[in-house]
Design goal:
Blueprint: H1 3-23, H2 41-46, E1 49-53, E2 59-63, E3 66-70, E4 77-82, E5 85-90, E6 107-109, H3 120-130, E7 139-142, E8 156-159, E9 165-167, E10 174-178, E11 197-202, E12 205-209, E13 231-237, H4 251-260, E14 263-269, H5 283-288, E15 305-307
Length: 310
């Protein structure tokens, strides 16, 4: 059985149950309140490098004095809105925090338009908090041919094609788009849309946000062996690989990519948030820690905060 046929078979097997469960209850935020306290303002704003994992691919990153929010998803389900319902997989852990509790965000990065990474209800709420009416509006950076998927209300939405770079904030931040091994369709048929990984550089710190990617050599040029200087932190997915290894890296492959790009630290994401595949919830982290030093892992659990020197 081919890998791609296996992934299609997995979807066909799971989705009747997902749809039935979604329609039994209206869309709602996870109950029970936040499971973490967001970074202490003094430590966070005083650190040249920091990270907070909010579940799945949603991260707060502090890079060179700027705060960056990646692939924001603050809803209880990842899927498509149908009237009062969201048809999709339910979050299996509590939301770590609320949008209202976030610190000021300078840049919002969106890697690709899949529903578990590009959540329009979340973006609509973020536009009210960090859009044109805010004191310090956030810049939104998206892949090629995806600008129209961003809800109105943001002051600046920039499409960044592969191989190009921009100053995303006017404050010394450089963001470069790299082509990962994935795909960018919002729906099955619109595969013309881009999909990005991002190299973030500011204040002498470098962070690679991978978004979704299978095993690839796309980041090798960043590594010191190729004159790239490496990165301080690699943010890479380690889950949803059992039937999807052609699109999502295994933990071992994520560790290999991090090593080849010269990453000092690794922040594992895209695991134990939504049940997207058949792998046991704890398996991705267990496998990662067999091939990557635990002392060089940051934010292994949703809600954890790490700050350099804090």
């Amino acid at each position: 059985m081919s890998v791609r046929y296996s992934s299609v078979r997995s979807v066909v097997k799971q989705w009747p149950r997902v749809i039935a469960e979604s329609l039994r209850s209206r869309t709602e935020m996870c109950a029970g309140g936040a499971c973490c306290i967001l970074p202490d303002d003094r430590v966070w704003h005083g650190s040249p490098l920091g990270a907070c994992w909010l579940g799945h691919a949603t991260c707060l990153l502090r890079v060179g004095g700027l705060t960056i929010l990646t692939d924001p998803h603050f809803e209880s389900r990842a899927g498509v809105r149908v009237g009062p319902y969201t048809v999709g997989r339910r979050r299996i852990n509590e939301l770590p925090t609320s949008i209202d509790a976030l610190p000021p965000v300078d840049v919002i990065l969106l890697s690709h338009a899949h529903f578990d990474h590009w959540d329009r209800p979340t973006l609509t709420r973020l536009a009210k908090r960090f859009g044109v009416s805010s004191e310090r509006p956030a810049t939104v950076i998206v892949p090629a041919r995806t600008r129209r998927l961003v809800p109105r209300g943001f002051q600046s939405v920039i499409e960044l094609p592969w191989g190009e770079a921009i100053d995303g904030s006017g404050a010394g931040l450089k963001v470069s788009a790299i082509r990962p091994r994935h795909w960018g369709a919002r729906w099955f048929i619109d595969r013309r849309r881009g999909y990005n990984s991002y190299l973030i550089e500011a204040g002498g710190r470098r962070v690679l946000f991978g978004g979704d990617t299978a095993h690839t050599d796309a980041f090798d040029h960043i590594g010191p062996g190729n004159g790239g200087g490496g990165v301080d932190l690699a943010v890479l997915g380690i889950g949803t690989y059992r039937h999807w290894e052609h699109a999502h890296a295994t933990p071992e492959q994520a560790a290999d990519m991090a090593a080849r790009m010269g990453a000092r630290l690794l922040m594992p994401i895209h695991h134990s948030t939504f049940k997207l595949d058949d792998e046991p919830v704890d398996e991705p982290m267990e496998r990662l820690l067999k091939v990557w030093d635990a002392g060089r892992v940051v934010c292994a659990r949703a809600g954890e905060v790490w700050a350099e020197g804090g």
